[in-house]
Design goal:
Elements lengths: L1 H5 L13 H22 L15 H9 L7 E3 L5 H7 L3 H8 L25 E2 L10 H16 L11 E6 L6 H12 L4 E7 L2 E2 L2 E2 L9 H4 L7 E6 L3 H18 L3 E6 L17 H8 L3 H9 L6 H24 L5 H15 L1 H11 L7 H18 L6 E2 L4 H4 L3 H4 L3 E2 L7 H10 L1
Helix pairs in contact: 2-3, 2-4, 2-11, 2-12, 3-4, 3-9, 5-12, 6-7, 13-14, 14-15
The structure holds thiamine diphosphate (TPP) and magnesium ion.
The site of magnesium ion has 6 residues, from strand 5.
């Protein structure tokens, strides 16, 4: 009896500074969305390109919960939806984008798994794209802007702000990674490199991306970079590392890397059946699933079993409601999509945006409407920058010229028309 009276149950002591209920809810929500896409929306052909974040979710959500400064910004990649959920992105927007629906922040323009989230109430997510490594230098730019506002404009709102970039173990072999690392460390920028090391870039093991497969170990002697590294599936360790790394960047105004190892519990994308992994390896990955670890960490220390189940049900309910809302949205029409792209961008940065939208995209000859629309945009962009009466020398080929020609032929000349490629090069070097 005496023994029983003094025996204290073994309990975890989760950090009170973490809102664990929110973390658990969001992990359940991320899982519910992944499962809904895999089991229903992909077979229904509502979602065509699906990426599961399963295994990466808890770490990202812990990170997102620490991005609480409205001047913070993050930039992720196609596996970053859990982070976006933690930043507060509308669930129907997240799902609707993957379904190419109208509305939301992308109005059907994105491939779905990439996001942008100009968040007026908190940390924003910079526009992402599918190019591996493309996320790094824009994030360095944000970090540089933070420092400009802090030290030149002297706006105290930026005193503790940071920029965080998310990337996989494959992305550390990209130009963007090394460029941003150089910028952030030579300029001492408040930038956190959050590396989710799942051991693979599609089917390629991380040992092909960096010697030994551990970028944090390899950068140990890199000057001006504080390194944090650990297990992204262990709730206590991941929460502590996220805390330490974000606090370091905020307080020291200097860059850091946080590398968390995580299992990729699904194929690279839905289509990938992972035949390059042995069944034993896949099993060992599932043994590292952070969700059951989170449950045993929180129940009963923070939540009862019933509360845990209720969070899961609530998250499923939210995912279902978001699905109904997203499906009720019309499919975004290409014409409308183009209008929205140009007009919304024009509101932010008129000239640069017009140049980028109107001039960089190649017109598609078989789509006469799109061809004409492209031509009209280029004409408008030119009108902003070139005098209406100025003579024009057109160096572009026929595909690009044709949609503009009726409007410019009176003042345009095409000096390289009819020349072969070698003659064109000669003309260009002579003129
Ligand atoms: C510039 C560029 N090169 C190649 C690809 C093709 N690609 C898509 S995902 C991927 C692997 C990236 O792996 P990692 O960074 O580890 O992220 P993970 O998918 O494992 O989360 C590659 C090579 C691409 N999208 N962009
Ligand atoms: Mg990877």
């Amino acid at each position: 009896m005496a023994t029983a009276a003094i025996k204290t149950p073994l309990r975890n002591a989760p950090d009170d500074n973490v809102d664990w209920k929110r973390v658990a809810y969001l992990v359940h929500l991320s899982r519910a969305l992944d499962k809904m896409e895999e089991t229903r929306l992909v077979p229904e052909k509502e979602v065509l390109y699906q990426f599961s974040a399963r295994g990466h979710d808890m770490g990202q959500i812990l990170l997102g919960c620490r991005l609480d400064n409205p001047q913070d910004a993050s930039c992720g990649y196609y596996r970053s939806r859990p982070l976006l959920l933690a930043l507060g992105v509308d669930v129907a927007d997240a799902l609707g984008s993957a379904m190419g629906r109208a509305g939301g922040y992308s109005d059907g323009r994105d491939i779905g798994v990439v996001f942008n989230f100009p968040n007026p109430n908190g940390a924003s997510a910079l526009p992402m794209c599918g190019g591996v490594g493309a996320q790094y230098t824009p994030t360095a730019g944000w970090a540089q802007a933070i420092e400009y506002y802090r030290t030149v404009v002297k706006d105290p709102a930026y005193d503790k702000a940071l920029a965080v970039v998310l990337g996989g173990d494959g992305s550390v072999a990209s130009n963007g990674f090394w460029a941003a690392l150089t910028i952030a460390t030579t300029q001492k920028l408040p930038m956190l490199f959050y590396i989710e090391d799942n051991g693979f870039g599609i089917s390629v093991p991380s040992t092909f991306q960096t010697p030994g497969g551990n970028i944090a170990a390899n950068l140990a002697s890199w000057k001006g970079l504080k390194i944090f590294s650990g297990d992204g599936t262990d709730p206590a360790e991941a929460a502590r590392l996220v805390d330490e790394a974000t606090a370091y960047v905020r307080d020291e105004r200097a860059p850091a890397m946080l590398r968390l190892t995580v299992p990729r519990l699904q194929g690279h994308s839905f289509q990938d059946t992972q035949t390059y992994k042995s069944p034993e390896f896949v099993e060992s990955e599932w043994a590292r699933d952070p969700l059951p670890k989170l449950k045993s960490y929180l129940v009963p220390a923070v939540l009862s079993d019933a509360e845990w189940d209720k969070l899961e049900q609530d998250a499923q309910g939210a995912a279902e409601a978001a699905c109904v809302e997203a499906k009720a949205r019309p499919v975004s029409l290409p014409e409308k999509r183009d209008e929205k792209t140009s007009s919304s961008k024009a509101r932010c940065r008129p000239k640069a945006a017009w140049r980028c939208t109107a001039m960089s995209r190649r017109p598609r000859p078989r789509k006469a409407g799109a061809h004409r629309l492209w031509g009209a945009r280029v004409i408008e962009a030119m009108a902003e920058q070139i005098d209406a009466a100025a003579p024009l020398i057109v160096l572009a080929g026929r595909n690009y010229r044709d949609p503009l020609w009726p409007q410019i032929e009176r003042r345009a000349s095409v000096p390289m028309e009819g020349l072969g490629i070698g003659q064109q090069l000669a003309w260009l070097s002579d003129n």
